[in-house]
Amino acid sequence: MWLSNPWARPRFLWILALGYVVWTLVPVGIAVLFSFNSGRSIATWQGFSLRWYCCDVSSVWRDAELRATFVNTLRLGVLTVLISVPLGVAFALAVDRWRSKASQGLNFLMLFAFVTPEIAIGIALFLFFIHLVTFIHLGLPAQLLGLSMFEMAYVVIIVRARLLSLGKEFEEAAMDLGASPTQALRLVTLPLLAPAIFASAAIVLAVTIDDFVIAQQLNLDASTQTIPIKIYGAARSGPLPSLNALASIALTLSTLLVGIAFLAYRQASRSTRQAKVA
Question: Do residues 202 and 257 lie in contact, with contact meaning Cβ atoms separated by under 8 Å?
Fold first, then answer.
């Protein structure tokens, strides 16, 4: 009978799922493992050590170039959050309130960033800053503006999903009690959106830390390179395990941010359902 309906039970799907996880995570796990290697090899295990994180002269902590790369990445990520999150929240509120064909078109343009190859966006931004807005120089200014506009789509999607789950009930109840539309937005809607805003900020920071294409296309020199750019540039020229350590730090930070965002959004959704039932 299972031949006539092989999808009735997941007999082999768990094997495929396990194979996929192994295929994707084993290379990452090996890279993280060799960041703790006591020797300089990235292929032969020579014992456990933290020398590539803090002790060796070439470690992430003591190497000025690696440390500057880490600081550049965090600075770019935080500044991108400060620009893209407020703009994304405002855009999501505007599209949610403004119901017309024009708003639907703007929403489609926002989502278009997800289906456009990032390399095309990176090259387009490079040409834009080089030939049209020459007063904005490559490096941090161009990277910040380019990534902020690209990452804003994540904020719009997360905040709009939260708005749809909230509905109009809370805001209408506030206005029935005497609040003006502005007060209802400021005192009711935005606090209810706080978990989605926090989750979107965490996602934007994580994606910015991991972004390579746009950051590399708009990079100026070594003074503005990020962790992915540094790893890519050194991966083919005898890399040290310190690069694995730097990548492991970025991976851990991104994973923590995504996990926090997921937990915050799930808790907010659960609280909203309980409030509506009550």
Answer: yes
Share of the chain above pLDDT 70, in %: 89
**Amino acid making up residue 171:** E
| Residue 242 CA, distance from chain mean position | 24
Separation of first and last alpha carbons in the chain? 47
pTM score, two decimals?
A: 0.83
Enter the tokens of residue 256. 């923590």
